[in-house]
Amino acid sequence: MTAPTPIIALDVPSRRDAEALLDRLGPAAEFVKVGLQLFTAEGPDVVLAMTDRGCRVFLDLKLHDIPNTVAHAVESAARLGVDLLTLHASGGAAMMRAARSAAGGGGPKLLGVTVLTSLSDAEVAEAWGRAALSADAEVGRLARLAEEAGMDGVVASVRELPTVRAVAGEGFLALTPGIRLAGDDAGDQTRVATPAEAARLGADYVVLGRSVTAAAEPAAALARAVRELNEAVSEGIAG
């Protein structure tokens, strides 16, 4: 059992802000997330700027379109040299298979987004048009669909990790957003967890956002999160 890989969320309005944040975080920020806000503002050049700094990149665009369009977007992302790329598992098996074919063997690892961590069970039921629905059950269903369609893993909250592990095979990756240091406000997220909880339940990647990036001392907050990840794994091995 190894500690999850931490990914810093560059949820900032510009490349200048992203680079300033990375300067404050220091060399421990080796893996970064470029999401919709930054990518829309700066385009592909910001991804190249991050790789030029020596960072690995998680391109979190949550693609969801017809199969042909998504396949071409995956090809474009592969040319940028990103490590991870997201698409919505609810886009369907055909869309995910087209993405898998476009990525090939040397492209980015593809992660199917299951249920956004901002959604409660009631909101999931409302969005899916059902009287009652469990986010956990939907995550399990979509994780199974994503694996069958050739995805490398899924994005899910920490609380659904046991379900993902139960329905998917060995080596299927799990990336968990909604990570908060103990005592921090959940913000607009509903299904949150600490770094230690993510590590104990077997996350492969954890996305560290506002608990680190909005902290008064981001480098210290990152060091605390990494320490919690490593300690949780060490305790699990010792136990």
What descriptors fit this protein?
18% strand; TIM Barrel; 11 helices; alpha/beta; 239 residues; 8-stranded parallel β-barrel; single chain; 8 strands
Structure annotation, total helices: 11
The share of residues in helices is 40-55%
Estimated structural class = alpha/beta
Q: How many distinct domains? A: 1
Q: Which CATH class? A: Alpha Beta
What is the topology?
Elements: E1 5-9, H1 15-25, E2 31-35, H2 36-42, H3 44-52, E3 56-63, H4 67-80, E4 84-88, H5 93-103, E5 109-113, H6 121-128, H7 135-148, E6 153-155, H8 161-167, E7 173-179, H9 195-200, E8 205-208, H10 210-213, H11 218-238
Parallel strand pairs: 1-2, 1-8, 2-3, 3-4, 4-5, 5-6, 6-7, 7-8
Summarize the structure.
This protein has helices spanning 15-25, 36-42, 44-52, 67-80, 93-103, 121-128, 135-148, 161-167, 195-200, 210-213, 218-238, and strands spanning 5-9, 31-35, 56-63, 84-88, 109-113, 153-155, 173-179, 205-208. With 239 residues, the protein is an alpha/beta fold.
Description:
With 239 residues, this protein is of the alpha/beta class. It has a single domain, classed as Aldolase class I (TIM Barrel, Alpha-Beta Barrel), CATH 3.20.20.70. 47% of the residues lie in helices and 18% in strands. It has helices at 15-25, 36-42, 44-52, 67-80, 93-103, 121-128, 135-148, 161-167, 195-200, 210-213, 218-238, and strands at 5-9, 31-35, 56-63, 84-88, 109-113, 153-155, 173-179, 205-208.
